[in-house]
């Protein structure tokens, strides 16, 4: 399974698949088509595919001045979860951050999202704060960072 995963730059033609993944993965705070189109232009936006089928995505933000990349979103189609696709996407993000000479990666994660927190912790991310009521439903975000 792992060897078949391909990570590549997201394109306009991926948006329908990405929107489906978004709907299946998130109950609130979803990105819509317009936001994804904007992110295609303004972020590091990659998809994971298996045999040509898009089954996950990752979005990273940065400015020239920022010392860290920001992991803005990551999601894997529910039918493909638990097969190391998320791990591949995180590996890719870490390599990208290093190649851009960033000092690390920051992110926000819903404090109850144990699957994502486990993935991040497993990759060396640690907690450094909380953003209260960060999500539309009032849930708090835990702040996590990984420093190289
Ligand atoms: C978080 C997410 C991207 C992980 O992707 P994935 O492809 O399933 O993850 P992997 O198979 O690479 O798993 C890597 C590690 O993540 C953790 N993990 C993944 N799924 C998990 C689950 N259901 N329960 C607990 N830990 C889990 C584990 O630590 C796992 O390591 P292990 O297999 O050695 O136990 C995926 O669950 C997802 O899309 N969730 C919905 C969207 C979301 O919450 N995104 C994060 C927003 S901050």
Describe, in plain words, how this protein is organized in 3D.
- The chain is an alpha+beta fold.
- The chain has one domain: 3-Layer(aba) Sandwich (Aminopeptidase), CATH 3.40.630.
- 30% of the residues lie in helices and 34% in strands.
- It contains four helices and seven strands.
- It has a seven-stranded mixed sheet with strand order 1-2-3-4-5-7-6.
- The chain is globular and about 35 Å long.
- It binds coenzyme A (COA).
CATH superfamily: Gcn5-related N-acetyltransferase (GNAT)
Rg, Å, rounded: 15 Å
Strand content: 25-35%
Give me the CATH fold name. Answer: Aminopeptidase
Bound molecules: coenzyme A
- What shape does the CA trace take? globular
What summary fits the major beta sheet? 7 strands, mixed
Number of self-contained structural domains:
1
Helix content percent band: 25-40%
Helix/strand class? alpha+beta
Strand order of the largest sheet: 1-2-3-4-5-7-6
Order of helices and strands: EHHEEEHEHEE
